[in-house]
Design a protein that fits this description.
Shape: globular
Number of strands: 5
CATH topology: Rossmann fold
CATH class: Alpha Beta
Largest sheet: 5 strands, parallel
Radius of gyration: 14 Å
Distance between the termini: 24 Å
Amino acid sequence: MPILLDSNVALDLFNDDPVWASWSEHQIEAAKMRDGLAVNPVIYAELSVGFARREDLDGALAALPAETIEIPRDALFLAGRAFVAYRRRGGTRTGVLPDFFIGAHAAVRGWQLLTRDPARYRAYFPTLHLIHPG
């Protein structure tokens, strides 16, 4: 089963981030060796802002390699429920945040999530196994 790759980790590598590129590259390599990598359409959309052409993004993902996998309806429903909990806890955003789609996808599939931003995932998807710094 693949490891879902959060956009912040992929962008570290694609942009050669001076602080995080080394950590992210190491984690991506380890994930590839263990289970392989996947992104979903939300992650794909987040990554697209760093590329001028879709073909360039597709090439970058193929070089990792990371497969693009659709989000199942169970995960979409869970993302909505997590968003309701977020709003009840005082969350201010009015649209479902991308992290809810990403976290719910990994949680429903029982996949690990490779991210540098574990806080929201931990708060709303406590059973989710995260790979993160620290």
